[in-house]
Specification:
- The protein has helices spanning 12-19, 26-44, 52-59, 63-73, 85-96, 111-118, 155-162, 173-185, 212-243; strands at residues 49-50, 83-84, 102-107, 127-134, 143-144, 147-151, 166-169, 190-193, 206-209.
- The protein is of the alpha/beta class and 244 residues long.
- The protein has three domains: 12-96, Orthogonal Bundle (Arc Repressor Mutant, subunit A), CATH 1.10.10; 102-210, NAD(P)-binding Rossmann-like Domain (Rossmann fold, 3-Layer(aba) Sandwich), CATH 3.40.50; 218-244.
């Protein structure tokens, strides 16, 4: 008499990924965040499962790596069917820390800061921009996405009252480091920096520097390479045909 299959139990490796307090390696963290984004979009399109090959193709990686990551998470899929999105997303939510709602302040309400304040996609990841601040008196009282820009003099009190731990910084580069130091002194634990400068902070403060200029430089370099390598490839193909 055959036994009925018991409830699914995550693999030992998957258990470590989900419960370990050790930070995830950055390449793995980047992949998990990408899986979350892809699976979310796939589910919104009416799908209930997602295949490793689909995720691998979008990320330009080997499907075997996707399957290894899924196994490490304790997520099982079916051949030619894929992984259940309803199981995958909650698992990724827990690992990526998206199950708890978090409030953040945004400092620097220029064009970029205003665009970030208006972006509604952060809520999908549990983040809400709850207050806006700026040092420019000309921006005081301006309303962006339902929030009023406040002077920096009110920022300290706001952080204390609402126990804010995350700050998004889009201030000009000359002021960015000084503002970051000020935030660290107010017990801010994470700074998401969009200012065009690499911020320094103590080891207990997480800083994510988004260097838009570097991203643009990489993009332009890749375009330049594609223009130079394409003619060379065509020339090699022509030579092979002529010698055949």
């Amino acid at each position: 008499m055959s036994k009925k299959p018991g409830p699914h139990r995550p693999s030992a490796h998957g258990q470590r990924v989900q419960e370990s307090s050790v930070p995830l390696p950055r390449p793995l963290l980047v992949r998990l965040a990408a899986y979350h984004q892809i699976a979310t979009q796939h589910g919104e399109e009416g799908n209930t499962t997602i295949r490793s090959g689909h995720m691998a193709a979008l990320l330009n990686i080997d499907p075997t790596l996707v399957r290894k990551d899924m196994a490490a998470l304790g997520i099982t899929g079916r051949p030619k069917v894929g992984y259940p999105i309803g199981t995958l997303l909650p698992c990724l939510d827990r690992i990526l820390g998206l199950t708890e709602r978090k409030s953040a302040i945004l400092i620097g309400c220029g064009d970029l800061g205003s665009a970030l304040a208006r972006y509604g996609g952060f809520s999908r990841y549990g983040l809400q921009i709850s207050a806006l601040f700026d040092i420019d008196q000309n921006k005081m009282g301006k309303t962006i996405a339902g929030l009023t820009v406040q002077p920096m003099e009110k920022c300290r009190r706001y952080i204390e009252i609402f126990s804010i731990q995350i700050a998004i910084l889009t201030a000009p580069s000359p002021q960015a480091q000084d503002i970051a130091d000020w935030l660290v002194a107010r017990d801010i634990k994470a700074i998401w920096n969009f200012a065009p400068v690499h911020l320094k902070a103590p080891p207990n403060v997480v800083v994510r520097n988004e260097n838009l200029a570097l991203g643009l430089a990489q993009l332009l370099h890749q375009i330049k390479r594609s223009k130079t390598t394409a003619p060379a490839a065509e020339h090699d193909a022509l030579r092979r045909r002529e010698s055949a």
